[in-house]
Amino acid sequence: MLIKIPRGWERPVEHATPEAVFRNRRALMKSLAAGPILASSSLLLAACDDAPKVAAQPPEPDPSAPLYPVDRNATYTLDRPITSEKLATSYNNYYEFGSSKSVVAESQAIPLRPWMVAIDGLVDKPIEIGVDDLLKQMPLEERLYRHRCVEAWSMDVPWSGFALKALVDFAQPKSDAKYLEMTSFNNPEVAPGQKSSWYPWPYVEGVTLAEAANEMAFIATGAYGKPLPKQNGAPLRLTLPWKYGFKSSKGLVRFTFTDKRPVGFWERIQGREYGFWANVNPEVSHPRWSQATERVLGIDGRVPTRLYNGYGEFVAELYKDMKNERLFM
Ligand SMILES: Nc1nc2c(c(=O)[nH]1)N[C@H]1C(S)=C(S)[C@@H](COP(=O)(O)O)O[C@H]1N2
Ligand SMILES: [Mo]
Whole-structure pTM over 0.85, yes or no? Predict the structure, then answer.
């Protein structure tokens, strides 16, 4: 009998599941000693990996379909092939639908219309706007971007969408706004992962206003010349290619301008492993694995990871005076 011993890079790594955190319980307890969450071990073990599978629904027509394909912006180029559409749309992280990489069937249960988007906080006029009305006002284009998950896999995707800066300009933040907090949908009726109260739903992420206005920051509304598939975060999904993938929130419903630094979903769960900045850096290891190399979906072997995921020429300026911040986790 052939016994296969997994090499280091083949062993599964994961953001943090209740089980993974349970394994790290001692560290967690230390970090929680001063905080409000009490992680009881029975709660940790009872959480959600065994959620029932939802049967696939027949696809509903997407009213944004006639918008695509859109013209490609030639500024952003790749030095490796575009990941096959099949792989990029079937190997996913979307914890609202479970912690496995296979959430295509489960995620079809999310209704995409009506889809209201709130723009609020420190803005002149808070509004709620339907996603199709928002799309009409945004300059759509296609961009080829690398995506680097903190779990050390990566892909290369032709996203369609608009610069996050266009949304910031549309929102007209007040002068005291310093951060943009982005909130994902919350609907445990359709998203089995959200039935687990162990996770701090809804998914929240945030960036500084300077990051939001940087030309690389992008909101994806489509991919591969079509509306974005549900499993990739339809109808609105953040794309911050110089940061680890967990910063690129899916299923966005709220953009809140604030003067307080947002605490992200993963930072809240496991702050010693995931921080606010989360810029890609091959020289700063995750506490449980190296970030030096990555596995590109569809390509054998591993390739070196690059500082800022290769986007330093666009974003390094943002961080030049931040010597005391944990910029790379
Ligand atoms: N709302 C939400 N957004 C999310 C996640 C999630 O679990 N929920 N996972 C993040 C992580 S860890 C990654 S790597 C990317 C994965 O995007 P993909 O499935 O399109 O490859 O989505 C990010 N956005
Ligand atoms: Mo990720």
Answer: yes
The CB of 245 under 6 Å from ligand 1? The reply is: yes
Among the four given CATH numbers 3.90.420.10, 3.40.190.10, 3.40.250.10, 2.40.50.1020, the one describing domain 63-319: 3.90.420.10
Peptide bond into 227 cis (omega under 30): no
Distance of CA 138 to the CA centre of its chain: 21
Question: What are the residue ranges of CATH 3.90.420.10 in the chain?
Answer: 63-319
Atom from ligand 1 closest to the CA of residue 244:
14
Residues with CB under 5 A from ligand 2 (ion): 93, 149, 245-246
Q: Is the peptide bond before 202 cis (omega within 30 degrees of 0)?
A: yes
The pLDDT tens digits for 253-264 are 999 999 999 999
pLDDT digits (tens, 9 = 90+) for 293-328: 999 999 999 999 999 999 999 999 999 999 999 999
263 Cα to the center of ligand 2, angstroms: 17
